[in-house]
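SAMPLE LOG
Freezer: B-3
Tube label: C17
Construct: single chain, 170 aa
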Amino acid sequence: MNESGPIDPIVRVYVAIYIGYYHARQAIQKISDSIDSGTDTDDCQELFEIVSLNQKQRDQLERVEVLLKQFVDRTYPDFDLKSREGEAIAISFWMKRLQEYINEECKPWELCRMIGPIEDLYQFPEWLGDMYNSCDWVEPNTDRNDFEHLYKDCKRLLSEIKDISHPELY
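STRUCTURE (predicted):
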């Protein structure tokens, strides 16, 4: 897709929402931040539709991923979530989330909810480590103190990923 240039921020948002790094409201905010007054409404119709969704209605929020996929498919037809480029983006968000957990900037659920989508998309990648087991029994209301091992597991995994992942991330 972008062999010689930077990755479009919208593609990064697409990967992030697909793997569970962003929820719909966060994705809407990121998309809104990336649209400026000079953006062509014809070329970005799905994006304008996303930022105009009523965020108080669940059915509207459920449309974010669908509309974002339509935009990426139309604008970047060669992009594939399962490609090396898509995986590199996913790894970068996973590493960011691991660091956020270490820095106490996210909750256990925000970390662990990413595991299922990543496993499904990348067929149990090495860079996910043993986090499936580390996150067993983590629920949306889980307290950090109830899963103290997660901190240690995140630190270990983050250092391992730096040894096995794509060099273009550093």
